[in-house]
Automatic annotation (TrEMBL):
Organism annotation: Roseibium album
PROSITE patterns linked to this entry: TPR
Protein name as it appears in the record: Cellulose synthase subunit BcsC
PANTHER family referenced in this protein's UniProt entry, alphabetically: PROTEIN-TYROSINE SULFOTRANSFERASE, PROTEIN-TYROSINE SULFOTRANSFERASE 2
Alphabetical keyword list: TPR repeat, Transferase
């Protein structure tokens, strides 16, 4: 190896270990310019990119490193985590299993494989992996917290709380453990944990942004529970600043305006012969925190239906097509020139995904909330499917978005102003779809469902082509794993406490109400 390259690698590693990630990234890029096959640079650049949140770059470099250093378990471990972060759960499983096979006594690897199985809604395999981790290390933080998170997904909330409290007692993975505990419990008075959380937020210890954010998420939730809205909002804003990258509302508005222009009545009328005849999909969509998980649980309790959860298919397809990027004439041409065989291939691939969930079910739910952006394609492909738009009071939806740590891709929830503007843009797109898509969009209003559970559930099931079954009223008894932030709420009967969260707090949410404009509640 060139001595100059070797020295540059060492300098870059020094910056990386000291936390100067941007400098390290730039230096590793220079190493790869001089020596593209350098295994250390690819591995280290993958680590640095992962720490910086550049998941695509991390995957690219780690895949090279995995080929060059196939016997190094840490390479496969980190590649697996990056792939899981990107939503490639199948690829992540392969990489994490490889890491475990190379280092079978590494407790963290088993626990992270448990996280992967939990994300894939394979509860039995997830539990086995966590228990293997805890057998190797009874105080393994990933295993303790992971077991708690698993218990939440299958509805064992009390057991979950015990696992989170054990992790806290062992002082392991404290930011995540506190954040999970705060979501699993409802606090009536100030708990001892709040002082511990506050102390950690102010201890001056350098932590990765997501960990520091988790402490603020936890404090914000507890303060809101005990009625201290001001302190809760302070912590939530600090959490969001650490958790989300900047958001450009104007760029999003331009992208949606482009979609409304391209996907007009003529677009759909000229593609009426591309339809697949399947009625298996039940598409459930709307903004996060609008009731999509609740609706899915009601449908999937039916004997002829299965829960697919948040299927990533159309989200990945949206990125592959380029619809997440800046509008352009080239993109418009790409969209308008899609050939019939491409539509048919996409429909076939999607139905294969549904069959992998449950081949025997007549209906399979797909509750990816942001599929509302892909209704143009879904309605062309599957006009016989059920389309359920979940709608909740704009103010309540936005307040819930502001107080839950969604993935960084949801950075529109950064501030009250950005989430309010985002909601208005989403609403304008849904109004456009109502006028042009060649399918019946069933809008289910959360507040109406809460007030009239039986009648609204009957209409919902009828829209999905399902006869009534009384068991759908007891959705909270479902054994289907729930991996979203609604996993605790859907384990109990419908409740009214989430209605009108803005009432009496208008002064705290003035920026949000102003941003919502005509969609804000009348006060």
């Amino acid at each position: 190896m060139n001595p100059g390259v070797t020295q540059l690698v060492q300098e870059a590693l020094s910056h990386q270990h000291a936390g100067r990630i941007p400098i390290a990234l730039n230096m590793f890029e220079e190493v790869l310019r001089l020596d593209p096959r350098n295994p250390q640079a690819n591995f280290s650049l993958g680590i640095a990119a992962y720490q910086e949140g550049k998941i695509g770059l991390a995957i690219e470099r780690l895949q090279i490193a995995a080929r060059k250093a196939a016997k190094h378990p840490q390479v496969h471990q980190l590649l697996g985590l990056a792939l899981m972060n990107a939503g490639d759960l199948e690829g992540a499983q392969s990489s994490l299993k490889k890491a475990v096979s190379l280092a079978p006594k590494e407790a963290d690897f088993h626990a992270q494989l448990g996280d992967l199985y939990r994300a894939r809604r394979q509860a039995v395999l997830s539990r086995q992996s966590y228990l293997r981790a805890l057998k190797l290390d009874p105080e393994n933080g990933y295993g303790l917290v992971g077991m708690g998170q698993l218990e939440v997904t299958i509805g064992n909330i009390d057991a979950a709380i015990e696992w989170f409290e054990k992790a806290i007692a062992c002082k392991k993975e404290l930011p995540t453990a506190f954040q999970c505990l705060s979501l699993a419990k409802t606090f009536k008075e100030k708990p001892a944990e709040l002082d511990q959380i506050e102390a950690l937020t102010n201890d001056g210890v350098p932590r990765p942004g997501p960990e520091q954010a988790n402490l603020h998420w936890a404090a914000g939730k507890i303060y809101h529970d005990i009625g201290d809205t001001s302190r809760g909002l302070e912590h939530y804003q600090k959490a969001r600043t650490l958790h989300y990258p900047p958001f450009d509302p104007a760029a999003y508005e331009d992208r949606i305006a482009f979609m409304k222009d391209v996907f007009n009545e003529e677009f759909f009328s000229s593609r009426a012969d591309l339809a697949n005849t399947s009625d298996k999909p039940v598409f459930i969509f709307g903004l996060p925190r609008s009731g999509t998980t609740l609706v899915e649980q009601i449908v999937s309790c039916h004997s002829r239906a299965s829960s697919g959860g948040e299927i990533q298919f159309f989200r990945h397809l949206q990125e592959d097509i380029g619809l997440k990027g800046k509008p352009s004439a080239a993109l418009e041409n790409r969209l308008k020139s899609m050939e019939p065989k491409e539509f048919k291939r996409i429909a076939r691939k999607y139905l294969e995904v549904l069959d992998s969930v449950d081949r025997r079910a007549d209906r399979v739910t797909d509750k990816m909330p942001h599929n509302y952006e892909m209704l143009w394609l879904m309605s062309v492909l599957f006009p016989k499917a059920a389309f359920v738009h979940c709608y909740r009071s704009p103010a309540d939806t936005c307040i819930s978005l502001l107080s839950h740590p969604l993935s960084p891709a949801h950075n529109y929830a950064l501030t009250q102003d950005t989430v309010g503007r985002y909601y208005r843009t989403y609403a304008s797109l849904m109004e456009h779809w109502e006028n042009v898509v060649p399918v019946n969009l069933h809008t289910l209003t959360y507040e109406t469902l809460v007030d009239n559970q039986r009648s609204e559930s009957e209409v919902l099931l009828s829209h999905a082509g399902l006869d009534w079954e009384d068991g759908c009223l007891e959705f909270y008894k479902s054994e289907s794993p729930v991996t979203t932030f609604s996993n605790t709420q859907v384990r109990r009967p419908i409740f009214r406490s989430s209605l009108g969260r803005w009432q009496g707090k208008e002064a705290h949410y003035r920026d949000l109400l102003d941003a919502l404009g005509p969609l804000a509640p009348q006060v």
